[in-house]
Amino acid sequence: MGGRSTFQNAGPQMIPIGRVKFDKSHIRKSDFSLRSLKSTIEDAGLLQPILARRTGDGFTVVDGARRLAALIELGVTE
Q1: Terminal CA-to-CA distance of the chain, rounded, Å?
Q2: Which of 2, 23, 49, 61 has the fewest C-beta atoms under 10 angstroms from its C-beta?
Q3: Strands 51-55 and 20-21, how do they pair?
Q4: Distance (Å, rounded) from C-alpha 61 to C-alpha 55?
Q5: Predicted structure pTM score
Q6: Are 40 and 78 in contact (CB under 8 A)?
Q7: Which pLDDT tens digit goes with each residue over 17-73?
Q8: In angstroms, rounded to a whole number, what is the distance separating the alpha carbons of residues 16 and 13?
Q9: Are 50 and 67 contacting, i.e. CB atoms less than 8 angstroms apart?
């Protein structure tokens, strides 16, 4: 095949949260659930990465909108 890969820079990256967009309707409505997740993140850190894809000049969440919402509420910026 010998061509250039279309998956350049596909590895894990730290990106500013402000560049990541997500559909808030995808987040479960339970406040308890989000509080519990925030508590876990505070105690143990983010255990599963957020999967996002590049869109224009930013990123869109593919998997992990609830984790991203929890991080935003915790004041995490990256």
Answers
A1: 37
A2: 2
A3: unpaired
A4: 10
A5: 0.75
A6: no
A7: 889 988 777 666 677 788 999 999 999 999 999 999 888 888 999 899 889 999 999
A8: 10
A9: yes
